[in-house]
Amino acid sequence: MVLTVSEEVREAIAANRPVVALESTIIAHGLPRPRNLQVALELEAAVRREGAVPATVAVLDGRPRVGLDKEQLERVAGGDGIRKLGHRDLPLAVAGGESGATTVSGTALLASLAGVRVFATGGLGGVHREWTVTQDESADLGLLARTRITVVCAGVKSILDVAATLQRLETLGVAVAGYGTDRFPGFYLSDSGHPVDWRLDTPGQVADVMRAQDALGGPGSALIVANPVPGDEQLDPEVHARVLAEALRACEAEGITGQAVTPFLLDHLVRRTDGASLAANLAAVRGNVRLAARVAAAWAAGE
Ligand code: PSU
Ligand code: MN
What are the residue ranges spanned by the domains of the chain? Predict the structure, then answer.
């Protein structure tokens, strides 16, 4: 098989021990270097502290990998020749022998092929604000409509049109629940300003929903567990609104399109908030990784 699952991850899956998939685009293209490598290592350590095995996903030299060693993580974080790979890019990268970091869509596909059911990230991709003109909707949404995986995230990136993204998730039939909240989180912000219809309060409740998905059968769609960044670690909402408006104007003025849009906006926010957006982003991801490990444990315990 073309997919390479690390020995540690393979053993954990075989023994029904908790495993958490982690995406690599946030490392390679979503965070500034060299901080990104530290973060990658820190996130893996946080998963381990909760008693689960981390499985960071990437493609190296044409080989899709679930579970990276330190040297492989260093390559991803180093960025040289590391492309950004959504799920549609995977066969091209494999056939071409290329290396790349996987987005939520690329990671969710490879993780589920490897048999990993729980995945942690920062914020999902979604519908961009200029959608009526650009038709830019992240491939994350379509893939999550077709993949049975639980994604713990802090909502969708606030650079997006959040209301439109929530609507698309509804249309596509993807289950969404707030974790410990009735509000949909706003990535850098604890509250996006939009409600969610469902709320889950414990890892055990999340695992129960996953079991109900399997018991019901039907199309293999995802479960999105939207876990807010703690209020005292969020980005100041006023700063967020001001800097984001500026970033969106810069993106348009510079003619940035396609895959480059998300990294451009995230980088702009980090620079223009003096790193405050980075701190909030990291706080969100850390919380998601910890929760995902607890969900994976509850899931493994019940099987
Ligand atoms: N969340 C972050 N940083 C990121 C991303 C999400 O905190 O870099 C990445 C994810 O990999 C997500 C991707 O899948 O951005 C979406 O990109 P696009 O809009 O091009 O689909
Ligand atoms: Mn896009």
Answer: 1-116, 129-302
| Among the four given CATH numbers 3.40.50.720, 3.30.70.930, 3.40.50.20, 3.40.1790.10, the one describing domain 129-302 | 3.40.1790.10
Q: State which amino acid sits at residue 192.
A: S
Residue-wise pLDDT for 36-70, tens only, equals 999 999 999 999 999 999 999 999 999 999 999 99
Query: What's the whole-model pTM score?
Result: 0.96
Distance 88 CA to ligand 2 centre (A): 13
140 is in an annotated binding site: yes
Task: Determine the distance separating the centroid of ligand 2 and the alpha carbon of 235, expressed in angstroms.
Answer: 23
**Angstrom distances, CA of residue 177 to CA of 101, 227, 261:** 27, 9, 27
Ligand 1 contacts CB of residue 100 (under 6 A): no
pLDDT one-digit tens code per residue, 125-154: 999 998 999 899 999 999 999 999 999 999
Same fold yes or no, 1-116 and 129-302: yes
- Which residues, 6+ apart, have CB-to-CB distance to 211 below 8 Å? 302
In the block, which residue shows the tokens 């493609």?
A: 59
The residues facing 4 across adjacent strands are 65
- Look up the CATH superfamily of 1-116: Indigoidine synthase domain (3.40.1790.10)
